Amino acid sequence: MREALFKKQNLDKWQSFEEDVQSIHSDTLAERFIELTDDLAYAQTFYPSSTTTRYLNELTAQFYRKIYANKKESSNRFVEFWKFEVPYLLFRFRKELWVAFCITFISAVIGAISVAHDDTFARLILGDDYIDMTLENIRKGDPLAVYGGSDPLMMFLEITSNNIKVSFVCFVMGCFFSAGTAYMLITNGIMLGVFQYFCYQQGFLKVSLLTIWLHGVLEISSIIVAGCAGLVMGNSLLFPRTYSRMESFKIGAKNGIKIVIALVPLFIMAGFIESFITRQHLNIFYSLLIIVPSFLFIVWYFIVYPQKVFQKSQLS
Question: Between the CA of residue 232 and those of 182, 241, 244, 303, what are the distances in Å?
Fold first, then answer.
């Protein structure tokens, strides 16, 4: 893109940033600093010796000094990541989050319908060993005995590391122009639908809902959000806008990795619940005492709170 067009498209934004730098709210300050560094990187790549690059360098330096002048703010950087940066990105990429949810939900419905019309489909998706083990546990009167069959600490470490690995794979697959991430969401959605309908066929749907979704609310939601991160990165390749495709990809990858990193505490909590609590065979009251707050937290942090953060940034 020609320098004149790049400057024309962004000059009003830069001037408003410059006017507000001294009075701006700290949350918005950090977000605008990120935007400026993206623009500066682009200018340094394509117009290294231009006045535009020098102007952006000076403006970015002002924001840098403003951010790091206050040591207390700097020490709270860890908190600010979850308090502002991630929610702001979730609002910014709410369409990708919605698409990731729809892909997973529709795939789950397809999986359930497939099992309803073909009993062998469950074995194809879940595997003969898992189906045979579950049927044997049903005959023994404990269809979900798999959750109590191993040491809880080792189970926690294995489940948590596997879930984190799955989320990062789901994200990284976005490199294939979002198609890889979509594939991961489809396969996970189909497995979810197949399993839940298999539980219905075998007569323990209620038990599975009250047991599996103890950790499933956090786990499945986190995979969907990881899918959102993958779509963010993939779409940056598909739709680079005014940036070069490589520069757009770098920005998309950076935004996506922030979203994925924010999921790690949720996977740890989900792994803890699955390893130490799911095996306790809780009654309906105690199950709902975990499931409902988990669901409300997911809705609040990933949907409601990002809107509030965005509105707050607009008023700053």
Answer: 12, 13, 16, 17
Per-residue model confidence as pLDDT tens digits over 287-297: 999 999 999 99
Residues 198/120, Cβ–Cβ less than 8 Å: no
Which contacts of 249-257 are long-range, i.e. CB under 8 A and separated by 24 or more positions? 250/41, 251/38, 255/89, 255/92, 255/93, 255/229, 256/171, 256/174, 256/229, 256/230, 256/232, 257/171, 257/229
Q: Is 310 exposed, middle or buried (0-12, 13-18, 19+ CB in 10 A)?
A: middle
Give the pair of three-digit tokens for residue 90: 């979730």
Q: Quick check: 191 and 152 in contact, CB under 8 A?
A: no
Amino acid at 101: F
* pTM value > 0.90: no
CA distance 114 to 101: 20
CA gap 308, 136 in Å, rounded: 50
Contact call for residues 301 and 87 (beta carbons, < 8 A) = yes
What is the distance, to the nearest Å, from the Cα of residue 92 to the centroid of all Cα atoms in its chain?
Answer: 13
